[in-house]
């Protein structure tokens, strides 16, 4: 394949993923700063924050359903068409959030409308990740699959970076202007990014792996049934491996925004700056970690990152407790910028290598989205509840990160390395 086409494929997987996660993280950050005051109004600020985080978590539980719907389309009709649908759905929901009336204007309808759009977002992201990943991985040469699979993973942090930059600019406004209209602008302008993403994907052909499945006449009628019947072990492995990638991530990037500002007294700007610096570093490191996995294997890299995550849990919170902006930045950079990078870089490629092409979209999506629902969206909620229950002690939250690491270590031992094997050679006879 010519370099120009390959470049377009990688950009398409990266841009789409970036846009989806820009929309998604925008909600997560605004949930901590705005929604608890304008949509989930309560006399007790902690209850308002918990309700706001609950709305953040809610979409994670709808993501597996979006994953089932769109991965069915992806395994039956193709990766490309599915990606256009998921991006369009996500874009409409995010744009709509920027136009919503507040609780003060329409009462209970405000949180109802917000939650509805949040669920639509969840459906879109449920199918987007698997398609973006497979677009890159199924085109990749075997010896570069780690690198190619890491590219769409960069979209997670690039999207987050875009969201953080947008909100950082908005927080330069006065408090009144930010709370009235400033927070809305990033949601509304996200429509421009969506149009760009759809244009990039227009010239992409279907992946070689899906073409081979279609030519062989082995397209499954019900991919979800076949996946759960013959590949349930692989799904469980993927769910378990996802835990350490997602729970600490949302603690380092979302929970820390409210914790550092409300509990420790850091400014909103300092906290968002720390997250932004760490995000830039992890974005740079992810492709290098992908390349490293092509040399030493996904499993070794993942295990190293997971052990590092467990060891850093208590030092991370201790550094925050010193109430130094410099230590806040260093702690966030080590956790989110360095330790998390190898874990997320190899995750998608590792998932794709344990599922057969016939049900690969469904398999990786189920594992990823169920893991995200169980451990990702709930992480800020669990961490806030633990703080509230244990008198603002960080010990239970640090223990929670260690627990997430142990769950993933247990899951990852079952993974067999397939780093140098062609994806089309991983066909599993169980489904025949």
Automatic annotation (TrEMBL):
Q: Which keywords does this chain's UniProt record carry?
A: Cell membrane, Membrane, Transmembrane, Transmembrane helix, Transport
Transmembrane domains' residue ranges: 21-41, 47-70, 82-102, 108-135, 147-169, 181-200, 235-257, 269-289, 301-319, 325-351, 363-387, 393-415
Q: Where would you find this protein in the cell?
A: Cell membrane
Q: Identify the residues that the record assigns to the Major facilitator superfamily (MFS) profile domain, covering every copy.
A: 9-422
Among SUPFAM superfamilies, the record links this protein to:
MFS general substrate transporter
CDD domains tied to this protein: MFS_ShiA_like
User: Which is one Pfam family of this protein?
Assistant: MFS_1
- UniProt topology in membrane: Multi-pass membrane protein
Coiled coil residues, start to end = none
Instruction: Spell out the protein name for this chain.
Output: MFS transporter
Q: Which organism is it from?
A: Peribacillus butanolivorans
């Amino acid at each position: 394949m010519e370099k120009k086409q390959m470049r377009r494929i990688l950009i398409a997987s990266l841009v789409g993923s970036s846009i989806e996660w820009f929309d998604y993280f925008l909600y997560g950050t605004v949930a901590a700063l705005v929604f608890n005051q304008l949509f989930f109004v309560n006399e007790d600020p902690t209850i308002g924050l918990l309700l706001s985080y609950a709305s953040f978590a809610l979409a994670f539980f709808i993501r597996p359903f979006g994953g089932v719907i769109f991965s069915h389309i992806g395994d039956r009709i193709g990766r490309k068409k599915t990606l256009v649908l998921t991006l369009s759905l996500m874009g409409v929901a995010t744009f709509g959030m920027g136009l919503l009336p507040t609780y003060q204007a329409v009462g209970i309808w405000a949180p109802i409308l917000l939650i509805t759009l949040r669920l639509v977002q969840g459906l879109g992201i449920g199918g987007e990740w698997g398609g973006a990943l497979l677009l890159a991985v199924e085109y990749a040469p075997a010896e570069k699959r780690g690198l190619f699979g890491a590219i769409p993973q960069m979209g997670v942090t690039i999207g987050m970076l875009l969201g953080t930059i947008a909100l950082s600019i908005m927080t330069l406004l006065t408090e009144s202007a930010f709370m009235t209209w400033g927070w809305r602008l990033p949601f509304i302008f996200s429509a421009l990014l969506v149009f760009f993403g759809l244009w990039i994907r227009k010239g992409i052909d279907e992946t070689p792996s899906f073409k081979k499945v279609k030519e062989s006449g082995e397209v499954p009628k019900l991919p979800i049934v076949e996946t759960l019947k013959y590949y349930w072990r692989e799904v469980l492995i993927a769910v378990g491996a996802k835990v350490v990638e997602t729970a600490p991530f949302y603690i380092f990037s979302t929970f820390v925004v409210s914790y550092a500002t409300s509990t420790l007294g850091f400014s909103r700007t300092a906290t968002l700056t720390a997250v932004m610096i760490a995000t830039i570093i992890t974005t740079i490191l992810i492709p290098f970690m992908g390349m490293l996995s092509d040399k030493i294997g996904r499993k070794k890299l993942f295990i190293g990152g997971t052990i590092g995550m467990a060891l850093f849990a208590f030092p991370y919170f201790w550094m925050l407790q010193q109430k130094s902006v410099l230590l806040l930045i260093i702690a966030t950079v080590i956790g989110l910028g360095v330790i998390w990078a190898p874990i997320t870089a190899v995750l998608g490629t590792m998932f794709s290598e344990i599922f057969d092409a016939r049900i690969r979209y469904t398999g990786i999506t189920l594992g990823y989205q169920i893991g995200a629902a169980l451990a990702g969206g709930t992480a800020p909620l669990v961490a806030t509840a633990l703080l509230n229950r244990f008198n603002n002690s960080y010990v239970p939250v640090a223990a929670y990160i260690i627990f997430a690491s142990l769950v993933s270590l247990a899951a990852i031992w079952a993974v067999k390395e397939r780093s140098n094997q062609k994806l089309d050679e991983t066909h599993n006879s169980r489904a025949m």
